[in-house]
User: Fold MULE transposase domain-containing protein from Aphis glycines.
Amino acid sequence: MENQLEIIKSEKGNDLALVNTCKYRHIRQRNDGKVKWRCVHKTCTASILTDSKHTILLEILGEHNHTLDTVEKIQRQILRENCKRKANDTISVRPSKIIRTELLKADYEVPHNYIKSIRKSMYDLRRKEYPTFPQSLNSAITQLKEMQNEGRFRFKNEKFIHVSENQNFICITTRTNINLLTQCDDIFIDGTFEYAPKHFLQLYTIHGFKNGFYIPLVYFFLPDKCEETYIQMWTFLKNICFEYLSTRLCIHTLHVDFEKAAHEAAKTMFPGISIVGCRFHLGQAWWRKMEMN
Assistant:
């Protein structure tokens, strides 16, 4: 449709008015409320007027003195900028997935080498917007300490990164999760080494059993699997619980594997606790013993 107005994003993230494959940059809003836009080519004086909400094209002024962009070029720019914006807004989603989602909406073909270029620009944007990858455990702790209170690192407006002042571990949880944890009679804990973040030995998960569901509530990035570290972990979690809810964290039944250090730490922090071994881990231990013999 001729003379259809569309607002797109420039490479710098600014609004551009698009009319008939011609791009116009925002100039100013006039006294009569109309908004003036001028062609993005520096030597071109062609311009347009829109309403204050940038939804209605009111007038086209002047002629362009240059070759106009093709429809394909405009489509690719829109695709690139949409992908870059979503890469910045949703940092947990892989660029390749974002690109696939945007391509499903498109009704035109995009060359493979251009897709590679888009993916590279998305990674470049994330590197500029977010901290460099930490090169050591200490630098990881330092970065997360600085990030833990930033508004963009919140889940449903709740803080979820918690860093101890003097211990080398990270706690991931929210006030809502802690509140639910205090309501669970059965707690399940387990550590995995395969999915631990770089510079940490294990990812330790704490699940609560509520209304027939096993719910992941707390995650810890731990540097080792020593008894003292587990004691510090539980101490930190109890402090968070008291800070958020003004109540003590009490665990009555703990389901855990057969790691002695985890058992001893739990007994130290929760006297009288009932520790229940995990059948799955028991089966694994038996199988390893059978293979050894």
Observations:
- Residues 162 and 171 are 5 Å apart (CA to CA).
